Amino acid sequence: MTKDMTTLKTAIIERFGTPCAVIDLDLVARNIVKAQERCDAVGLANRPHIKTHKSPMLANLQIKAGALGITCQKLGEAEVMANAGITDIIIATNLLGAARSGRLAALQSHLPLKVCADNTVSLSAYSKAADQAGRPMDVLIECDTGQKRAGVETPQQALALARIIRDDPYLNFAGLLFYPSLDGWPRTQLFFDNTAAGLSDLGLSAKIVSTGGTPNFAHIGSLKGATEHRAGTCIFNDRMMIKAGVATLEDCAFQVFTSVVSRSGPERGILDAGSKTLTSDSGGLDGFGMILEHPKARIHKFAEEHGFLDLSKCDHKPAIGDIVRVIPNHVCVAVNMVDQLVAVRRGEIVDVIPVAARGMLV
Amino acid sequence: MTKDMTTLKTAIIERFGTPCAVIDLDLVARNIVKAQERCDAVGLANRPHIKTHKSPMLANLQIKAGALGITCQKLGEAEVMANAGITDIIIATNLLGAARSGRLAALQSHLPLKVCADNTVSLSAYSKAADQAGRPMDVLIECDTGQKRAGVETPQQALALARIIRDDPYLNFAGLLFYPSLDGWPRTQLFFDNTAAGLSDLGLSAKIVSTGGTPNFAHIGSLKGATEHRAGTCIFNDRMMIKAGVATLEDCAFQVFTSVVSRSGPERGILDAGSKTLTSDSGGLDGFGMILEHPKARIHKFAEEHGFLDLSKCDHKPAIGDIVRVIPNHVCVAVNMVDQLVAVRRGEIVDVIPVAARGMLV
Questions:
Q1: Does A245 contact B at CB distance below 8 Å?
Q2: Is A316 exposed, middle or buried (0-12, 13-18, 19+ CB in 10 A)?
Q3: Which of A10, A73, A169, B358 has the most CB atoms within 10 Å of its CB?
Q4: pLDDT digits (tens, 9 = 90+) for B182-207
């Protein structure tokens, strides 16, 4: 460990305690530029998904670097981003709770949102909200091409919704939203081509054709007709993105600084970060995060505030009081646990960034 | 569904949107009384663990019902509870991050804390914090009898720490903290008996001998020499507690109200509650929560804001726009996702309770 890192760890624990969520602003800036370049290289607009960082400050850095606008997953996230002056926002889910609470109409009256739907119940809710807001709402149709999450399953279903949008005075047809599975790009092309032909018959065209996902950077641009890409995780990266082959350990800008607080057995230890810090989302990987100082240590289990370490494979084992840095498996859910990110640059603490849209469930 | 429940669901979604975390105050009150009675019945003091609710208001209800004091897992939780006037607090972990940040000393200067240790590094940190605070600190020795989490593994180790505490001018030996595994009670008795004999030789006695865990209500009182019990989950209960046999569905006081937002396939659906609402903590159970209206539906997967429903076994399948209630697998981590709990009583919304110690990582 370099002297600089020892100094930083001491500064972190003395100022904030542990566990502490830390981002490296130089790495964040580099990751923002890389994502922009990946979109630029294939002629797509960049619409980063802010669910990863939930910070208007970081969203504005993305826009400054060239992003056309942003993607949100919840209306509450969009509210926070709109309050910070961001105006071009897609909310990439069916919004029913937010619509019925009146919050969708309230935000739409402040700025024109782009929302998504895969069903007529959502369309009715959007129409009503747009009517209340006194401003028509842009709607993208969410199309499923393999994730089996939300999204219409056929071009025919997409076209049926497009016709309803066209005929609704409060709705504008804005385009199509895809989140292809990694092997689903040829299927997505077929879906898009068939839908585009039908849209033309309806007198419509998709101004926005959006693809999504950081792992899908591997295929970005391979959908002919796409206009933009939504990626979230790439601003920080994590073990899942390393596994997916779209990032290296050196690209991981988010770390949890955590203390070893117990070493009751020779082959085991306990971190002060558990499921209430790093979450139980394993992302399908072995262990719950990678310890930079002890890559052979395995975080094999969590209690709420305890991370259980299996140290049997470590040549050098951590001592009680050691501060170690964990790269989480899934950074988006880890960020969502904390109210603030401590920002460092070249080993110095330079800022504390609120995770302003944390816990925006609705 | 009763008319009352339809009315409540409408009130919840129109006022708060979905997903929304809801507690039933009558059930909470009943659960608080039950836990107190379980302790009273075996002559143990009740020291509820507030990590489950993180609410000073609910902690004060527990104290009003007879609890001697409370248990916290993080210093930040203790700070919130102390600010609300609670004075008898055990913090049941090795505190290193909080000690080095100065926050332990700061709180200790306001009120005498009871802290826990299983190692000499923690003891040194506590001694230094107590010195800074100008008030000696009560220390319990955490003893492991099977969880393989934190805690000394032998009576000899416990006694070695007890001697150091005895000889430290800033530390008071306060007792022993156990969290027996379900089958570990006979082992815990042996550990306690051997330790108690040794303590006597040191001129010490354990004023507090604490056992823990809601599932351990099944064995409460079976450790001769115990003085108190710490249980957290029992204030709300969840699927894990039902599985453990210490609660029924009717005892579950916490529910997430969530909307069905997509039904793209005949056998599947999507909830607007995903891993950022209910968390990926399965608690070792099948599926991620139980839907009261559709007990045969299986929440088989989460995305961050999507709950994936397998409806193949449901006779009656939910429609888009339906509001359903989910009992989580593990309520403690679900509560920790939200900033507030909507409190209802006999079907009426009566309060909004801040989860004041949410996200207290340190």
A1: no
A2: exposed
A3: A73
A4: 999 999 999 999 999 999 999 999 99
